[in-house]
């Protein structure tokens, strides 16, 4: 490998590390304090970078928001799939959706759904962020549908999408209501309802 390629590789790695640090810092602040309540200067200070460095990686706060949403989603979906598919095949993998949520709720940093929190703060006409959130939610429904297909043989193929959406709605309701009440009974009751609809 030439010296030029080595230098280029090192610079690329450093660039990625700084971008990740900005994304992780913004993600923590946006999720904890809210998108609108978190300013660019706070992200810069917490990440320990110069303003110019931030704008070398992100053109706007909206771009940082998109990176935040994607960062949270990638980690969530990976953890969700690993957890649910680690359970015994059958109904257990479906009900594990709510066991996963129970663990999420018990995390000391639990602050509800980052997507719903964000969409409630953006202007109605911000289609870029809204589209990203809709895309993430559709991906989540698709994963639930895959769990149904792989675990519930009695469910006909034409019923899978509808059932996936029903379970998705139970999950989303449980996230919001457990955050509101600061209790886990919405998760417990959503799991009970899910058990009835997949019986």
TrEMBL record:
Gene Ontology molecular function, alphabetical: DNA binding
Record-annotated HTH tetR-type domain positions: 16-76
DNA-binding region positions on the chain: 39-58
Keyword check for Transcription: yes
InterPro entries: Homeodomain-like_sf, HTH_TetR, Tet_transcr_reg_TetR-rel_C_sf
Transmembrane listed as a keyword: no
The entry's keywords: DNA-binding, Transcription, Transcription regulation
PANTHER family the UniProt entry points to: HTH-TYPE TRANSCRIPTIONAL REGULATOR YJDC (PTHR47506:SF1), TRANSCRIPTIONAL REGULATORY PROTEIN (PTHR47506)
Protein name: Transcriptional regulator, TetR family
Species this chain originates from: Winogradskyella psychrotolerans RS-3
């Amino acid at each position: 490998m030439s010296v030029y390629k080595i230098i280029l590789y090192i610079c690329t790695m450093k660039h990625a590390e700084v971008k990740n640090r900005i994304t992780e810092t913004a993600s923590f602040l946006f999720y904890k304090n809210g998108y609108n309540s978190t300013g660019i200067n706070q992200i810069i200070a917490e990440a320990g970078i110069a303003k110019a460095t931030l704008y070398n990686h992100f053109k706007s706060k909206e771009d940082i928001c998109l990176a935040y949403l994607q960062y949270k989603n990638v980690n969530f979906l990976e953890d969700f799939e690993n957890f649910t598919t680690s359970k015994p095949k059958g109904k257990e993998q479906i009900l594990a959706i709510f066991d996963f949520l129970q663990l999420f709720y018990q995390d000391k940093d639990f602050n509800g759904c980052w997507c719903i929190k964000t969409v409630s703060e953006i202007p109605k006409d911000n289609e870029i962020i809204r589209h990203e959130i809709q895309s993430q939610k559709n991906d989540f429904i698709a994963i639930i549908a895959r769990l149904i297909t792989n675990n519930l043989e009695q469910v006909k193929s034409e019923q899978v999408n509808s059932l996936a959406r029903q379970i998705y709605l139970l999950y989303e309701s449980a996230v919001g209501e457990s955050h509101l009440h600061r209790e886990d009974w919405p998760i417990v009751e959503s799991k009970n309802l899910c058990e009835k609809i997949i019986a």
